[in-house]
Amino acid sequence: MNLLDELRDYGCTVEAVQLDAAQPTADSLEKIRAFAPTHLYYFATPKISPSGKSISEEKFSTFCLYYIFALNRLIEQLKPMGLRNVFAPSTVFIDELPKDMVEYAMAKEAMECWGRAMNADKKKGVRMYMPRFPRIHTAQTQVLLPVEAAEAEDVLFPAMQQFEKELIYE
Fold first, then answer.
1. Which top CATH class is 3-165?
2. Which of 43, 88, 118, 148 has the largest CB neighbor count within 10 A?
3. Alpha-carbon gap, residue 7 to 48, rounded angstroms
4. 164 Ramachandran zone, left/alpha/beta (phi>0; psi -120 to 50)
5. What percent of the chain has pLDDT over 90?
């Protein structure tokens, strides 16, 4: 059983659409608009990998494309259909600042700044929730040498419960 089936078993109305957030197709956007979501769970990300010895403008720009600009375009397209709540995880790397993840941490912090500005502007009508997640076991975080990482459900479910407490329903 997959996550969507489990959520449906709990009575939730859910849809999932594969979407390249940086270059969405008209078909995928139309499927999302037809569903008219009130909530968006945004996990889009480019490949996350350690940096070199100096800061990479290209890597930082790519992260910003996904975490700010692509997300903003999606929000603007979905607001007229009733979107009110966005779940967009951030990272504890903002505080921990591993030396080889600077571009990633900077882009996530910029996303948080933009999200706080959106939350402060009640006229925007959309609430962003940006919990800071630790490293989580995912297909992308699998590495040859073991590193400490949390299980996704141990991080995601409590964050989703908190998100639910802060939702906008108007």
1. alpha beta
2. 88
3. 28
4. alpha
5. 45
